[in-house]
Amino acid sequence: MPSPSPTRRKTLLILSQVYVPDPASVGQHMADAAAEMVRRGWRVKVLTSARGYNDPKIKYPPRETIDGVAVLRLPLSRLGKNSPPLRALAAVLFMLQTMWHGLFTRGLSRGRGAILVSTSPPMCIVAALVIRLARFGSTPIKFWVMDINPDQLISLGKISPDSAPARLMNFFNRWILRVSSDVIVLDKFMARTMNDKREVSDKLSVLPPWPHEDSVEPVAHADNPFRKQHGLDGKRVIMYSGNHGFALPLETLLKAAVRFKEDPRIAFV
Q1: Residue partners of 11: CB distance under 8 A and separation at least 6
Q2: What is the pLDDT of residues 65-92, one digit of tens each?
Q3: Which secondary structure element, helix H or strand E, spans residue 251, and what is its range?
Q4: Helix, strand, or coil here: 69?
């Protein structure tokens, strides 16, 4: 079967502050989805940050093609994670730039395209809504929920449920949940939270994050240099693989480490 001609291909516009080769998880999953859509015959364009997520000193090429995906990296969209005001400013600048470039992305109207947006940063959803409005509501939005705010900020005690930022974020959350043609969440708990904000069961899919098996090669314990280097031969090793942050359940792991600290058969790494 011949591939669709460039003028007839559907267009997928992806808004994500992180994208490969940056190692941040959201960008890795976005890249997998983007490459698959290219394989299915879509024209895919990604708007992302020009600098590293964890290390803004890392600078990526402003334009490149990765696995058939056109990647456009925007300046001043990562100013580091140490300063909350600078982090917020970077998110606003990224949102404004994605709006501008999204408005001039061809192929999104008249049923020929779609917008895929995640919650990195949360303000991305505002850009997606503006682009959709500018095209008279004709462009479908696929909303991939990776984080839940303001719920996360409220749970951490950073803002109150009745604060202006919380009300504003919930307003945009309910708006994008209403207009999105598809809502993708990571687990049943996220699904319940989204339905509490607005009933979306008829267009909601649960899609857990997948492992990057293509880049992982199993190593037998006897041949594992990490075990040898750290004196872990013969031990059951418990490892936490993920971010360390206030919103993550590290307390369970730490309590287990304390409980088993005298057991020579177990090592927490």
Answers
A1: 42, 43, 44, 45, 105, 106, 107, 108, 112, 113, 114
A2: 999 999 999 998 887 777 778 888 888 9
A3: helix 250-259
A4: strand
